[in-house]
Design a protein that fits this description.
The complex is a heterodimer of chains A (about 250) and B (about 300).
Chain A (H helix, E strand, L loop, with lengths): L2 E6 L2 E4 L4 E7 L9 E6 L10 E4 L2 E3 L2 E7 L3 H7 L6 E8 L9 E7 L4 H9 L4 E8 L8 H7 L1 E6 L10 H10 L6 E5 L2 H13 L3 E5 L15 E3 L4 E3 H4 L2 E3 L8
Helix pairs in contact in A: 4-5
Chain B lengths: L5 E3 L2 E3 L3 E3 L21 E3 L16 E4 L2 E4 L7 H13 L5 E6 L4 H12 L6 E5 L9 H6 L1 H14 L3 E5 L7 H10 L4 E4 L3 E4 L1 E2 L4 E2 L5 E5 L4 H14 L4 E4 L5 H9 L4 E4 L2 H4 L3 H16 L3 H4 L6
Parallel strand pairs in B: 3-4, 3-16, 4-7, 7-8, 8-9, 9-10, 10-15, 15-16
Antiparallel strand pairs in B: 1-2, 5-6, 6-14, 11-14, 12-13
Helix pairs in contact in B: 2-4, 4-5, 5-6
Classes of the chains: A alpha/beta (about 250), B alpha/beta (about 300).
The complex binds flavin-adenine dinucleotide (FAD), flavin mononucleotide and FE2/S2 (inorganic) cluster.
Flavin mononucleotide sits at the interface of chains B and A.
Chain lengths: ~250, ~300
């Protein structure tokens, strides 16, 4: 059930230079791939709009978000403290498909956020992460991901795992005989488009979580519409999860 | 429970809390968060004769205590609205106010006539003021003569309660309000968004795909409150106030300066249940003070 409530921060933990976990009680059980709109629950009007944030984890009524500080809103949120109110609206949007066979969860940077819960809840017999970071220093939660599934780390400078891009790692794994039935990707748009190319080449079904600036997250403001090569989409309502064909020019 | 009913011409609202066009979807989007039957009514997204795709590029920028939008009046068009959307919202026990716009007087009249055939629609809100669309819209909203003749033309084809929504992007809003009244409007609603812009100083580009957009949210409230106050003194027809309403205090302020009803806009994005909370808050406020809604409206001391 969707709801919009003011709840209190139960835990706030820095996990790297610029990323933190925020936990708060939230009763509605989300589906993997869904997101919430998060704002300050104290009535302040600046920052005004809520921020779309993926579900990193949900367990027994406790919602956890993994947030990277990129601007003013996320910075102020990082400076909140346990016990302070936040407004959470959700769970929103569609969800990742489940698949029984082999599934790869591919994330770049903060794009790894929705993959933890997705892999945890997945019924795949064989699941693995491909997680890309800029460097070992800028990585986070690597042990937590390792607990959920086999994890292939890649980094831009080779300081963590191998020096490859996530889509190159996917290609290498397929060539080594580990072709998945499904890949689920989240990260910078360039990364997702590259993952799509590799998946398409090998005939693998690929699913992606898109980002867009949002006003409401519930389909009311029409602010989140983006023109993708394949279609014009209202990300909060039709997504945020889309088939890889969205990266292909419509003929 | 206090009697919160207010009258906008022949339309009776069960309370003065409405939601503003473009911030409340077509209604059902908010069902998980509030009981629509507890609202005085809601205004739909602006409808045009034909469907419109809206503006490309970034459509929303947050600003200090507010936001800029350049949605560009994206909507499903009158046919889909009447055939598919109306049946889904007709059952709500609350006023349905259809916001509409066009690019020519002919189309305004045609659209008003088509919408008027639907018996469930309680009122029409004519949007003269959206700053996003390059042709038509904004020009209508600034010229009192045009507003009067356009209102009169639309008046001829509709028996529905006709609300003219005014743009704040004018030198004197009482002139445009009086023009709407002279043309036969049953009420005026204000304010629509204020034209603004934002740049990305790093790339030195405009952030919005459309370069300019409409400013809304708490940042515009003092301007809106002043304009509603002036307008309420200048016309005899009811004034529906809006602009930056986010708390019960804001609702009270607009009613005190003379608004007969109010619309909650961008605040719906922050708390999708806020409109019901405000209606209940107003009920409690009046009950505690043993004051009637009519005593509250226009009670500002000058
Ligand atoms: C469906 C979805 C899921 C997301 N999940 C996560 C997550 O799990 N963890 C996480 O750290 N981030 C996530 N993001 C991105 C996150 O919403 C932005 O980083 C955040 O809104 C930035 O806010 P700010 O105030 O710090 O930045 P500012 O740049 O100061 O924000 C200004 C405005 O721009 C918007 N904005 C800025 N960057 C983005 C962006 N990349 N995407 C969307 N809107 C943006 C803000 O919401 C705000 O309205 C997600 C985005 C979407 C659409
Ligand atoms: C995203 C968005 C879309 C809007 N679309 C419309 C519209 O279609 N027609 C209209 O008359 N006003 C539209 N408005 C203006 C609002 O109805 C309202 O007049 C304005 O936002 C001021 O109120 P607020 O500060 O409470 O948001 C829109 C506003 C926003 C923020
Ligand atoms: S964010 Fe408002 S419609 Fe998608």
């Amino acid at each position: 059930m969707q709801r919009s409530i003011v709840t209190k921060i139960a835990d706030l933990m820095q996990v790297s230079n610029d990323a933190f976990l925020l936990a708060a009680p939230f009763e509605s059980e989300p589906l993997p791939g869904q997101f919430v709109m998060l704002s300050f629950g104290d009535g302040r009007t600046d920052p005004f709009l809520p921020r779309p944030i993926s579900i990193f984890d949900w367990e027994g009524g406790m919602l956890t978000l993994l947030i990277r500080v990129v601007g003013r809103g996320t910075l102020l949120m990082a400076h909140q403290a346990v016990g302070m109110p936040v407004r959470v609206t959700g769970p929103l949007g569609n969800s990742f498909p489940d698949e029984a066979g082999r599934v790869f969860f591919i994330g770049g940077g903060i794009g790894i956020a929705p993959l933890y819960y997705a892999a945890k809840r997945s019924h795949a017999k064989n699941k693995a992460f491909i997680l890309g970071f800029r460097s070992a220093e800028e990585s986070y939660l690597t042990d937590d991901y390792l607990k959920v599934a086999d994890t292939h780390f890649v980094s831009d400078d080779g300081s963590l795992g191998v020096k490859l891009f996530p889509h190159e790692k996917l290609d290498a794994l397929v060539k080594a005989g580990e072709k998945p039935d499904l890949v689920i990707a989240c990260g910078p748009e360039k990364m997702m488009a590259a993952v799509h190319e590799v998946a398409k080449k090998h005939g693998i079904r690929d699913i992606h979580s898109l980002e867009s600036r949002m006003g409401c997250g519930i389909g009311a403001c029409l602010g989140c519409r983006v023109q993708m090569p394949g279609a014009s989409v209202l990300v909060c309502k039709e997504g945020p999860v889309f088939d890889g064909s969205i990266f292909e020019e419509k003929k | 429970m206090t009697d919160l009913r207010v009258h906008i011409s022949k339309t009776t609202l069960k309370n003065p809390i409405l939601t503003a066009s473009g911030t409340f979807g077509y209604g059902p989007e908010f069902e998980p968060y509030l009981d629509l039957n507890k609202l005085g009514g809601f205004c739909t997204k602006g409808i045009s004769l034909e469907p419109r795709p809206g503006n490309p590029g970034i459509r929303i920028v947050e600003t200090a205590s507010g936001m800029l939008n350049s949605i560009g009046l994206e909507n499903c068009g009158s046919r889909v609205f009447l055939d598919e959307t109306m049946p889904k919202i007709a059952h709500y026990d609350t006023a349905i106010i259809v916001n509409f716009y066009a690019y020519s007087e002919d189309d305004f009249v045609k659209l008003a006539a088509v919408l008027s055939e639907n018996p469930r629609i309680d009122a029409l809100e004519m949007n003269l003021s959206c700053p996003n669309v390059k042709q038509g819209g904004s020009a209508f909203g600034a010229d009192p003569k045009l507003i009067e003749s356009l209102t009169a033309a639309v008046r001829k084809v509709t028996a529905k309660t006709l609300i003219v929504k005014l743009s704040p992007n004018v030198a004197d809003i009482t002139l445009t309000a009086r023009a709407a009244e002279a043309g036969g409007a049953d009420a005026v609603s204000l304010i629509n968004t204020l034209v603004g812009t934002a740049v990305d100083r790093r790339t030195r580009r405009f952030i919005l795909g459309n370069k300019v957009g409409g400013l809304s949210g708490p940042a515009i409230k003092p301007v809106a409150l002043r304009m509603v106050w002036q307008t309420a003194k200048a016309v005899k027809i009811p004034v529906i106030g809006m602009g930056g309403i986010a708390t019960l205090g804001d609702v009270l302020d607009f009613l005190i300066v003379g608004a007969r009803a109010v619309q909650v806009g961008s605040a719906n994005f922050v708390d999708p249940g806020i409109a019901q909370t405000l209606a209940e808050g107003l009920d409690r406020y009046l009950a505690e003070r043993q004051e009637t809604i009519d005593q509250l409206i226009g009670s500002v001391q000058e």
